[in-house]
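Problem 12. The chain below contains 118 residues. Write out its predicted structure in token notation.
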Amino acid sequence: MKSWLCLYDSGTGGVYPTLWTECGWWKIIGWAAPPNGCRIWEPSYYEITFPDGTKTTDAVFPGASGSDKAATNGGTYPCQTGPWKLWSYYGVQMKDVLGNWGSSVAATHEVTINVTCP
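Solution.
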């Protein structure tokens, strides 16, 4: 699993988290997509600690499916200048050769992103 956990400017005075993942496995030719697809767990959780010290509660990334890549956005929050601490627990699940959801990989990430509001 390859993944990115980011914050984006909503363009309307807000900021939202995005989780992007890519599923694959190592074949003789290198990194390759699984033959039957993958999906982000439903739900995957995140928590944001804002610069004023408040936190999100029960925040989730909705599930998303794709052939070998999946992306999903969390909720939009009012912009606050300063460090945003973003933590997430998520995973992906791949289909087996019969097309059933099978193998899973989980991860946690924690990043601190310095946000500047317009």
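Discussion. The mean pLDDT is 86. Students who got a different answer should revisit the alignment rule from Section 12.3.
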